[in-house]
């Protein structure tokens, strides 16, 4: 059995973390974060986050990047916390748009890793039920940081800032939800200088991996990301398929030429841990 088939089989076999109960928030702009400085000259460095990623993100032979949560030292955990604190101290609305994008992406990913470390070991990030509400699911609704005096959650960053401000579907390949079904946490920080390459690489890598999209017996099976956030990909099957075709290569590109609709979607919520 080929590597791609083995990966596909393992994804199909995952039933413990069903997708049906997950409701993705709509993109609803939080207006105060539209502010920016078009001519802003401040350049942020994300070296602390870069160092953490270099040390603990592991690329697997199956094409999925995992985090070695269990190996994180107390020193590096403290450095991660300090990095988040340093981002909280930055007046983000005084930055240029090109600096704001990596600011929010890196803050989202660093907060996600931090919240996993605070509750590790867990089987899935959805087990970290710290969001407000009786039927809380995961940590996404919990206020985890304070920026310019505003308490911020992961949902705020993704769905009230990144998606509505930038209106770029590639945002979904940049933010990582600490799950095997998610686009990879890249082993480097996003910066203003590498942002376009970061987004393009994330899109290409995910779409050309079986958990992103694959065609079996003429049927297109995609990540549930394209169902949850279909409005970001054109709003229907045709829009999603057009997006996939933009990045698809090899056999996937060939197969997509004869596909007109999506047959199914899947997602693996198991933690992106090297132990998995």
UniProtKB/TrEMBL annotation:
<dbReference type="Pfam" id="PF04784">
    <property type="entry name" value="DUF547"/>
</dbReference>
<keyword id="KW-0732">Signal</keyword>
<protein>
    <submittedName>
        <fullName>DUF547 domain-containing protein</fullName>
    </submittedName>
</protein>
<feature type="domain" description="DUF547">
    <location>
        <begin position="93"/>
        <end position="207"/>
    </location>
</feature>
<dbReference type="InterPro" id="IPR006869">
    <property type="entry name" value="DUF547"/>
</dbReference>
<feature type="signal peptide">
    <location>
        <begin position="1"/>
        <end position="23"/>
    </location>
</feature>
């Amino acid at each position: 059995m080929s590597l791609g088939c083995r990966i596909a089989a393992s994804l199909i076999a995952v039933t413990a973390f069903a997708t049906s109960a997950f409701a993705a928030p709509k993109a609803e702009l939080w207006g105060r974060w539209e502010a920016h400085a078009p001519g802003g000259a401040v350049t942020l460095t994300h070296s602390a986050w870069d160092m953490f990623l270099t040390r603990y993100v592991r690329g697997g032979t199956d094409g999925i990047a995992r985090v070695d949560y269990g190996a994180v030292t107390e020193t590096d955990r403290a450095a991660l916390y300090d990095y988040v604190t340093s981002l909280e101290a930055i007046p983000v609305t005084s930055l240029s748009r090109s600096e704001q994008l990596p600011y929010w992406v890196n803050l989202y990913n660093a907060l996600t890793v931090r919240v996993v470390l605070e509750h590790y070991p867990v089987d899935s990030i959805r087990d970290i039920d710290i969001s407000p509400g009786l039927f809380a699911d995961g940590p996404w609704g919990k206020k985890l940081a304070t920026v310019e005096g505003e308490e911020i959650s992961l949902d705020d960053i993704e769905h009230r800032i990144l998606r509505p401000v930038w209106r770029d579907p590639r945002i979904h390949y940049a933010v990582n939800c600490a799950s095997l079904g998610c686009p990879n946490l890249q082993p480097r920080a996003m910066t203003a200088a590498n942002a376009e390459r970061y987004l393009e690489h994330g899109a290409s890598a995910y779409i050309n991996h079986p958990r992103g999209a694959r065609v079996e017996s003429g049927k297109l099976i995609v990540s549930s990301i394209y169902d949850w956030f279909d409005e970001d990909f054109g709003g229907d099957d045709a829009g999603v398929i057009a997006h996939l075709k933009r990045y698809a290569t090899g056999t996937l590109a060939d197969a997509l030429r004869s596909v007109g609709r999506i047959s199914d979607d899947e997602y693996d919520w198991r933690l992106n841990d090297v132990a998995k």
